[in-house]
Amino acid sequence: MATLGARIPATTDHSRARRYPGGMPTREPAASVTLDGFELRVLHIPLVSPFTTSFGTEAVREVIVVRAHTPDGDGWGEIVTQSAPLYSSEYTQGAWDVARRYLIPALLDAHTLAPEQVAGVLAPFVGHRMTKAGLELAVLDAALRSQGRPLGGYLGAVRDRVPSGVSVGIQADPSALVDAVGGYLDEGYVRIKIKIKPGRDVADTAAVREAFGTIPLQVDANSAYTLADADTLAELDRFDLLLIEQPLQEDDLVDHAALAGMLCTPVCLDESITSLKAATDALALGATSVINIKAGRVGGYLEAVRIHDLCRDAGIPVWCGGMLETGIGRAANAALAALPGFTLPGDVSASDRFYHRDIVTEPAVLEDGHVRVPTGPGLGVEIDPLALEEFTVARETVRR
Ligand code: NPG
Question: Are the C-beta atoms of residues 311 and 289 closer than 8 Å to each other?
Answer without folding.
Answer: no
